[in-house]
Amino acid sequence: MHGVQQWVAIGIAGGAIVWLILAYNSLVALRVRTQNAWAQVDVQLKRRHDLIPNLVETARGYMQHERSTLEAVTQARTNAVAAASGPLPQRVVAESVLTGALGKFFAVAENYPQLRASENMQLLQEELTSTENRIATARQFYNDETMRYNTAQAIFPRSLMARPFGFSPATMFAADEADRANVQVKF
Q1: Which of 93, 97, 137, 182 is most buried, most CB within 10 Å of its CB?
Q2: 95 with 35: CB under 8 angstroms?
């Protein structure tokens, strides 16, 4: 009887080790998927950052009385580029501010028919709109992967091993309160 108990204990220990390995590997895979999803967002954000200087330069000649709007977009872009090498929560905030500044820019640009009619402005606006759509899609994919990763860490019994093995929740990419406010357009 003593031998049977020994084999049962070995079986339980072996099962626990196999479960630990499988749980660890699944968390690693989810973390890598989340990192890959963020890389896709990052590519689109870089594309947006590259388009903004051309957009501002095109608008500068037409929007001479809107210097503060142009400066706000330029400063928001500068901050977003600077935050690109920082932690994700800071990047999310900087990108949200940039999104808000661009929204205000386009709302103000509506007051300038010559600017709206400019072929270069139309092309840049189409390119930026396309990029914003790609960013939205990439953000959604990133948030979906982040949700899967964070959920996998929080569910018992994985929650017992996630933190000790260095897994921490990923940050969701969410709009801040400024992004939720309606843009005020004054004529």
Answers
A1: 97
A2: no
